[in-house]
Design goal:
The protein has about 350 residues and is of the alpha+beta class. The chain has 2 domains: about 110 residues, Rieske [2Fe-2S] iron-sulphur domain (Rieske Iron-sulfur Protein, 3-layer Sandwich), CATH 2.102.10.10; about 210 residues, Naphthalene 1,2-dioxygenase Alpha Subunit, Chain A, domain 1 (Alpha-Beta Complex). Helix content is about 25%, strand content about 30%. The chain has 9 helices and 17 strands. The strands form 3 sheets. The protein has a 7-stranded antiparallel beta sheet, with no helix packed on it. The protein has a 7-stranded antiparallel beta sheet with strand order 11-17-16-15-14-13-12, with helices on both faces. A 3-stranded antiparallel beta sheet has the order 6-7-8, with no helix packed on it. Helix 5 packs across helix 8. The protein is globular, with a radius of gyration of 22 Å.
Length: about 350
């Protein structure tokens, strides 16, 4: 019996504002999302604010060394507490000067003694689930979410093996790229290489060896692996004595983050933030030991921006325009049992994750 054809998601999943609103509540607010890097919180009181699924949040380091995340809202009259990044001794609301400890407990407020029966212990900032995963900070708005090691089994240990300097790495640069497309178009494009041979010559000839490319699910992770192109084909020098130096690996953590390790154990990351149904911002991060300047990494980052990144922007924005056409009928996904470069099995997996979140 012939297996049924597996078709791509209908266009409404990428264009309908009501689908996007459902995603914010049922998918983005219930998954692990990247917040920042631990090096941004070097000292007690250091903080940075950010947004996830329409919620303003901030991460802050306590005097006990613990990184915590809170909803960015005073419990008195709902004024936002912080913006941008900086360092504070205590958290002071700009509206009425209610003051909170770095752990979220209320410390003081003007004339609170006049409130009969009031006790400071009654008020505390609302905390958000937070994990520091190999020095990368992730949050989950779902208090009952399973730990990241259960969502992404084996990834932490593999990452540390492929990136032996992970404890000392800091961001050298984060490049922000706005794409005029639905966030799922961008992460789907990232998560298959069916389009690579035609569209990414530099990547497929100077970084990876296409015939060895493979993508496998690992919990809610899509693991990309490949041998790299011949050492003489690389556009930068690498130390071949280090483990995995001649390999490329990527761990895409559903739904909006990826670690990539280029040949030479060079770490870069992608993280996405959806702005609305038809716009997403993608940050491309590059890392060096202690954040030190590196001509090699800057040159590699510039090459990446000029080739793969720019090439992908053209692709994903064209797809978004095409999905608005009344002439579009979702075509069959190319599912090769052997997986490899010319297969869309990873897209089948991701699109099922979307259906599971929205259609149950």
């Amino acid at each position: 019996m012939t297996a049924p054809v597996i078709r791509a998601l209908a266009a409404r999943y990428y264009t309908d504002p009501s689908v996007y609103e459902a995603e914010r509540e049922r998918l983005l607010a219930r998954t692990w999302q990247f917040a920042g890097h631990a090096s941004q919180l070097a000292n007690p009181g250091d903080y940075f604010a950010f947004e996830i699924s329409g919620e303003s949040l901030f991460c802050i380091k306590g005097r006990d060394g613990v990184v915590r995340t809170f909803y960015n809202v005073c419990q008195h009259r709902a004024h936002q507490l912080l913006s941008g990044a900086g360092s504070v001794r205590v958290l002071v609301c700009p509206y009425h000067a209610w003051t909170y400890e770095l752990t979220g407990e209320l410390r003081a407020g003007p004339n609170l003694a006049a409130v009969e029966g009031f006790e400071r212990a009654m008020v505390c900032l609302t905390e958000v689930r937070t994990e520091v995963f190999a020095n990368f900070i992730f949050v989950n708005l779902d208090d009952d979410a399973r730990p990241m090691d259960e969502w992404f089994p084996g990834v932490r240990d593999e990452f540390m093996e492929w990136v032996p300097d992970w404890e000392r790495l800091q961001p050298l640069e984060w490049v922000e790229v706005q794409e005029r497309c639905n966030w799922k178009i961008s992460v789907e494009n990232y998560s298959e290489c069916y389009h690579c041979a035609r569209n990414h010559h530099t990547f497929t000839s100077g970084v990876v060896k296409p015939q060895t490319y493979d993508i496998r699910p690992q919990g809610y992770c899509l693991r990309h692996t490949t041998e790299c192109a011949g050492i003489d084909m690389l556009t930068y020098e690498i130390d071949t004595t280090r483990p995995h130096a001649e390999e490329y690996s990527s761990w895409f953590l559903w739904p909006m983050f990826s670690f990539q390790v280029y040949p030479g154990n060079v770490l870069n990351t992608y993280h996405w933030r959806a702005l609305d149904p038809q716009n997403v911002v993608a940050w491309r991060g590059w890392y060096t030991v202690d954040g030190g300047d590196s001509e090699t990494i800057r040159r590699l980052a510039a090459q990446d921006r000029a080739t793969t990144v720019e090439e992908d922007i053209l692709l994903v924005e064209s797809v978004q325009r095409g999905l608005k056409s009344r002439g579009y009928v979702p075509g069959p996904l190319v599912i090769d049992p052997e997986r490899g470069l010319r297969s869309e099995h990873s897209i089948q997996i991701m699109q099922q994750w979307v259906r599971n979140a929205l259609d149950d």
